[in-house]
Specification:
Layout lengths: L6 H16 L7 H8 L15 H9 L8 E5 L5 H8 L3 E6 L2 H10 L6 E4 L13 E7 L10 H9 L2 E12 L16 H4 L7 E11 L5 E10 L7
Parallel strand pairs: 1-2, 1-4, 2-3, 4-5
Antiparallel strand pairs: 5-7, 6-7
């Protein structure tokens, strides 16, 4: 969630998350959020109906030349980032756990070449493991609680093909204590867990957002070694 959200929306999301956690279903709050939005993107805090500026800036300045290959967008929301990657020449698969979100994507982009799918990050097809040349993860990890964080990071890390790229955008916290969430910002120790999958940090940018620049957000580009680092 961002600092600009009205208090009423924040409270609504907090109630949905609390109920989801009570039911031991940490990702179960996404579908009711999209359903209750009833087609109003202002009720989905990350739905800006435009490409993430941090992805767009990376595509403009750091996208390597040559064949684009396959790309995967994790938690694709309403599809703008997936469409931006498709426009750059990637063969894009984009998924979200919310069937309402995926239907919304298909309604917004009826002629899209993106393959939109309903899927659960915690239970992805094994055929996706190591299958994507570019994986984009923006603020999905931070929307899930710390007690499954290592599992979620592994689910992301295992998707990247040898010599492929992972681009992560997330809020960052400056210590290892558990934050009040959502979002549950990542710590440096948690970010370091990507190295278990042979992912080496290539480039990092830090952004400060919110009131008095109180929110720290980072964009990290990883490259996967041919020899995996997790044995």
């Amino acid at each position: 969630m961002s600092e600009k959200e009205p208090q009423e929306l924040r409270q609504k999301i907090k109630l949905l998350v609390d109920e989801s956690l009570r039911q031991s279903d940490p990702s179960g709050w996404f579908e009711p959020l999209y359903t209750q939005a009833n087609g109003d993107p202002s009720q989905v805090p990350w739905a800006n109906l435009t490409t993430s500026p941090h992805l767009e800036e990376w595509l403009d300045n750091y996208l390597p030349q040559g064949d684009r290959g396959s790309a995967l967008v994790i938690g694709c929301g309403l599809g703008d980032d997936a469409e931006a990657l498709q426009a750059k020449g990637f063969k894009v698969t984009a998924f979200d756990i919310s069937s309402t979100a995926i239907a919304w994507c298909q309604q917004r982009f009826p002629n899209s070449q993106v393959e939109y799918q309903v899927a659960d990050l915690l239970a992805l097809p094994s055929t996706w493991h190591g299958a994507f040349d570019f994986v984009f993860e923006s603020r999905t990890i931070q929307s899930l609680p710390l007690n499954i964080r290592s599992q979620v990071i592994d689910c992301v890390g295992q998707l990247v093909a040898d010599t492929g790229t992972l681009l992560v955008i997330t809020h960052l916290r400056d210590n290892d204590s558990e934050p009040d969430g959502p979002p549950w910002a990542l710590s440096e120790g948690e970010i370091a867990q990507f190295t278990r999958w042979g992912l080496q940090e290539i480039r990092r940018h830090t952004f400060f957002e919110g009131e008095n620049n109180a929110v720290t957000k980072i964009r990290i580009e990883y490259r996967k070694n041919v020899v995996m680092g997790n044995g």
